[in-house]
Amino acid sequence: MSRSRNFPSPQPLPVNGERESSQHEKVRAVPQFSFRQVDVFTATPLKGNPLAVVRDADGIPDATMAAFGNWTNLSETTFLLKPTHPDADYRVRIFTPERELPFAGHPTLGSCHVWLSSGGKPKTDYVVQECGAGLIRIRRDGDRLAFAAPPLKRSGAVDEASLVTIAKGLGIPRAAIKGAQWADNGPGWVAILLGSRAEVLALKPDYQSLLEFRIGVVGPWSAADGNEAQFEVRALIPPRSTEDPVTGSLNAGVAQWLIGAGIAPDRYIASQGTVLGRAGRVYVERAGDDIWVGGQTVTCIEGKVEL
């Protein structure tokens, strides 16, 4: 004789992006955003400076942006948003692992690369980026993008006491510094000129003795170094005890100084990242009143991120 059995009623499947916890509580899914990791100032993946870019980031809380920038642990992470200025094509916010920056170079080019390759259409012949430093013009030059160097927030000579401290921290005689200039367009750069590429590459900085500075070091290539570039650059960031692979903001400030002082020609290529195993190339050109700083960008990772 058969007996009927009482089965539990079926539970409805989660809908509208909701999922159920083990306690049968409905939990809304974490929002997903388009994400790319690109390599800037190189045409060869893994040889430039990586950048994390989150698209359509309007609505992400400031604290979440800062936390994600800290979590990626890249030199910078950017978030693309709708512009607030009528002349801008998009707005970008730039985060290091420790703080937000008003402007930085490789995040500008990498963010523009992502915006354009995602279907962005500029309003004029230039792409106009809105950021903490104002409006930044970006031009397309073949397979390269270049930004117009923003005005310096601090320029002029570096005091002697600071130069003595910097020389000691770099492990070089004070006399090895052939020139120095504040080249701060946001991150706080002080630029130091040495006599040769070899001297730049030989530096072994004591970061702990340089904590109050962000130092850019530049030296000319010689004929023996080849003709791929005219200057070697290193970007030292003592607060993080690290070196940035390839740095647009530093190269912009250095170019404004070197070209303005007649030390560099109106057009040159800077090499950066050599001691880190990178092969960054930064293309600098003065055109009228503008100094353009550019390079190539390649996409390495593409997907979604939950924030």
Provide the helix percentage.
10-25%
Give helix and strand order, one letter per element, not per position: EEEEHEEEHEEEHEEHEEEHEEEE
> How many DSSP helices?
5
Quickly give the structural class. Answer: alpha+beta
Structure description:
The structure is a single chain. It contains five helices and 19 strands. It is of the alpha+beta class and 307 residues long. The strands form two sheets. It has a 17-stranded mixed beta sheet that branches. α2 crosses α5 (248-260). The longest helix is centred in the middle third of the chain and has 13 residues, at 105-117. The chain starts with 17 loop residues before the first strand and ends with a strand.
Please summarize what this structure is.
The chain has 307 residues and is of the alpha+beta class.
